[in-house]
Design brief:
The structure holds two protein chains of two kinds. By secondary structure, chain A is of the alpha+beta class. Chain A has one domain (about 1-240): outer membrane lipoprotein receptor (LolB), chain A, CATH 2.50.20. Chain A is about 15% helix and about 45% strand. Chain A has a 13-stranded antiparallel β-sheet with strand order 6-5-4-3-2-1-13-12-11-10-9-8-7. In chain A, strand 4 and strand 5 (about 95-100) form a beta hairpin. Chain A is globular. By secondary structure, chain B is mainly β. In chain B, about 15% of the residues lie in helices and about 45% in strands. Chain B has six helices and 22 strands. In chain B, a hairpin with a 4-residue loop joins strand 14 (about 355-365) and strand 15. The two termini of chain B are about 35 Å apart. Chains A and B meet through strand 1, strand 2, strand 3, strand 5 and strand 6 of A and helix 1, strand 1, strand 7, strand 12 and strand 13 of B.
Amino acid sequence: MQYTGRFLRGLMIVLVAISASAEDEALTIIRKVDEMGKTSSSSAKMSMLTYPYVGDNSNFREMKVLAYGKGEDNSYMEFITPKSIQGLRILSLSGDQWVYFPSTGRVRKIAAKSKDQTVQGVGGDFTYEDLGGGNMEESYSFKILKSDAKSWTLEGTPKKESSYSKVVITILKENYQTPKIEYYTAADGHKKDLLIEEYKMISGRQMPTRMTMLNLIKQSKTVVIMHDAEYDVPLDDKYFNPMRFYK
Amino acid sequence: MPKIIYLSMVFLISGLGADLTVASAPNEDSSMGGSDESTGLYGYLINYFQSSLNFRNQQFSRPTFGDALLLRLKGDWRPEQNLRFHMEFSYQSNVGNQNPYLLYERLGIAGFSQSDFPLEDFNQRLFFDHVWGMASFGDFDLQFGKFPVAWGTGYVFNPTARVAFPPFLDMVTEDTPGTMALLPSYALSNRFSIEAYLAFQDKTQKKTAYQEDSDIKNLPYGIKLNGIAGAFDISLSWIREVLYNDLDTRPLDAVLTQAGMAYIQGIVANQAMAELLAAGDTVTVLEMFKQGALAQLLADLPRHPYYKRSYFAGFDFAGAIGDCGVYGEFVLRLPRDNRDKKFVLKNYRTADNLEMCLGFDYRISAVEVDTRMEYYYQGSGAKNKKDYNLMTILSGEKLVNARNYSFLMLEKTVKDFHKFNLAFFTNLDDGSFAVLPGYSYSPYNNFDITVGAFILGGSRGSEFDGRYTLYGVKEIDLMENLWPYLRLKISF
């Protein structure tokens, strides 16, 4: 019995050590992924296409925006199309949002929304949580599910309150790009897939320029296409000042 | 993933209720267009067709019809990084029951016969509503021209917006009217700013021109301090409102007594003249006439004591408590004496001089329905429905008659291009109400079709009953209680 007890303790230590080692490796990988996407500032023109029916490519809505980003959590957007809201601007600063409506000349503060809220009024398959900012390391605890010659598959469980029960990320070993992220919820199981379909060399780094979010429950999808992106560019501070971003 | 891509999609979920539509053909590879997207012409055309009829005693009345057409052409130019120019040109045509002159005729206050002015067009008009420029110098911005001075955080009511009449329960107008003004603003930091406006038109933006318009005391102005405290934006303001109102809002008896006295004085004067003429004293009558005419010539220019100046201290806020957006807006009309010389506290009642709105918005995630609720209090409103005064509404002095109102709106979007709305607007004092159901469909990227109705109800003589008693003596059916409509909008 004594021998058996020692064996089990030893096995547990080994398993914990292996597990810790695996977690350390996952952490190293995810830090690298986070680092790849980190920029001090950004400027881009983007198109967003939302398809209410994933199999019907003739029915979609298209929006074009001019977008500036600063740091991890700050962004400014100005709508170019649709024409009905041309000139509408949105400033997001660390979770707070202000919207300028050119038709009324009024700036409105937008309340925080529930994290699992999907594209409201406009459609789309991204939730606030998907867009919530911060890096992967802060949001999830990762472990390696699978490793082959070309990629790692990491499973992340949320460190804090989340609408997802887990995420599964595919990471290419060659360049730390993430061609696919799977989102799972307790209620729906495998709910969404984010597919990054195109990378381009921009400002000296490989950046995603086209991605699709597939909603497997609703059978809908949203496509984002980047045009004219630049990173680490100087930007006027007024775009990130809630007192005058609309001036 | 790069932050910019995350954030680029925030707008999709920001709950704007934006009027976004379905594209007719795939265009995924389209580029973003020219090098300066903020320059260009765009706008919209709205056609609003409405029928009006009464439903009473389980019977429909014969309906009336009308149509409103609005073209709004907008232009943006940015000649340099720190300079902006914006203009909005409108063509508007209103016929049938959408023409306000029909309402004036029905009320008997048209004041003239339209046929006496054959060159005047009572159906359509062309005008520039917004024409403004802006120059920025560091954190200082100067806006000038004709532009919306849209203060406040409320959605339906804005007690701190006191320079122009806002569109109210209006299915055609989408834009806040412009006001000729100067508006300097200075951002002290990312959390504090100060702004002010000096306007050159009174709130009515009347078409007539009087000498008093050039008097500095009749120039509206406002000063506002903006700040951010935690999850809330807050503002403190000081406002002078100027309103030109020459509509007679006195009780009927006072109006008739004054007119009668003038009539009697005329008879007495004419009788005296007639007696002199009968006695053959033409010279005296002629001399009296000359003296009267000369006195008129030498008198001061005519005065128009119809400018009302009011001073307000204001406060507003907007923020969030949990997932619920909350906002509020308050102004207190300060006790200024009749000569606009000093503030007096005698007989001042705060409850009569307070105007405020409080509201919240919330998304019921389980059914994906957006809700908004707003309460409005107007201390200067009538406490009893018999005190409602239609003239204060027509003159623009007030938007509504009573003191307490509520607004509730529910909105649900289905598969991105079907939108259902249901709004309830209630006069909490007399119990009358307006229900506004609506459905919008967007078959193309820039085309919206909306069908809906205004359904009005309440007890006889209540605000939304439609039957008003003018001067307490004459009941008129001012508005029908059922207005089905069709609204078409194309954006370009």
